[in-house]
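thought: fold this chain, then report.
action: predict
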Amino acid sequence: MSEPPANGGPTVLPGHPGSMPYVGIATFLKLPVTTLASLSELDFAILGIPYDEGTSNRPGARFGPRAIRDASTLYSYEGGVELFDVELGRAILVGARVADFGDVPIDPSDSDSARAAMTGAVRAILEAGATPVCLGGDHSVTASILQAFAGGPVPKPYLVHLDTHMDFDSYLPRHAHGTPIRLAVEGELVTGVTQVGIRGLNSGLADWEEARSLGVNVITCSRFRDEGIAAVLETIPAGAPLYLSIDIDVFDPSAAPGTGTPEPGGLSYVEGRELIRAVAAHGRVQGIDLVEVSPQYDHAQLTSTLAARLLLDTMDAAWSQGTRGR
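observation:
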């Protein structure tokens, strides 16, 4: 691996191009592509999961990984320039070894094979000692990602789930994007669940009651605004290994219109960022996904840019706290 740039910024594999954002290949942050052989050299591995066979409304999240990567080039000026966050008063991701592991190969005609490929790719990242940062795809991919943690090299995580919907549906097919939290709980893939931002009309009463009876902590958007971050943290075991799953529709459509199931009244970017920073400081982040970006419903790259920036914030929150749980 190369040494950290003198002025800060993430450490990258040799060959990181120095150019304007719109020049070159649009990997995440224009970082080099890594291979299975070099995964062990990384702290964070970006993994695209271009799958949306689980959508129940507007399709298109299969194009999310490409849109997020393209938007992320906004933050790639001249290769080694530091990612200085003036609000934090410091550069972010200093010394973190980050590269793009490409996409999971998806055959839309064989969903079982696609799900197995998702699990296999994430398991490879975990076994190499890196933290997977997954770009969805619809939210059904989260269940396959979490399956990679089962019996793996890191402890079973506690799931922190940011979403407008509970994704605990009983009325949708088993592997739909409205079921991953149900599958995670039923499959005992996580030690517990806290959901934040819930406000959609699609979460039925029976499913809500069942989720709560099974120990799922449901914090609605209005409760979050009334009680703040402390209400979230008190539901999460301190120091626990964490998995963060972020559905882009947790944000208000005014900030993130490019998604299949938008719902008014969501979080602002700042609310989401500060919540994630607090959660990362409270536990030990072992994996991240950001899902449901559908660029054909976006305007001026608002949604994909928010997604790219939030992923940088989230990785830095994990990295700066030294909480990656190895």
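thought: worth noting. The CA atoms of residues 46 and 300 lie 24 Å apart.
final: tokens above.
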